[in-house]
Design a protein that fits this description.
Distance between the termini: 18 Å
Largest sheet: 7 strands, antiparallel
Order of helices and strands: EEEEHEEEEEEE
Number of strands: 11
Number of helices: 1
Structural class: mainly beta
């Protein structure tokens, strides 16, 4: 199960399409991922924005980085990061249980 934390957004200076994204600094008013409550090995959903390009995915937290697995993007593949991107923890529609949905044999 993915972990959700409040107000976690950071900059990344990572470049390229590799799966490891280094986390560098938070934005004013936001928390770094570890302070927000993400620990090594935690899974979370993220958004990366790099200019007008975007990516959503499943992240697995490391020490000062995370491993990314693509769910969706504006390009159809992992973004080719330019070294000036923003990454934040998010809730995806697939994380939500909508009233009336049947999940694991129960109706919500």
């Amino acid at each position: 199960m993915v972990k959700l934390v409040d107000r976690a957004m950071m900059k990344t200076y990572t470049t390229g399409t590799g799966t490891t994204v280094s986390l560098d600094q938070s934005f004013a008013g936001f928390q770094v991922f570890s302070v927000a409550g993400l620990n090594q090995g935690d899974e979370f959903h993220y958004v990366i924005e790099d200019g007008t390009a975007w990516e959503t995915g499943l992240g697995v937290m490391g020490l000062a980085q995370f491993e990314r697995t693509l769910i969706d993007s504006s390009t159809g593949s992992l973004l080719d990061l330019t070294g000036n991107a923003t990454v934040f923890v998010t809730v995806l529609a697939s994380d939500m249980i909508i009233q009336g949905d049947v999940v694991d044999g129960g109706t919500y």
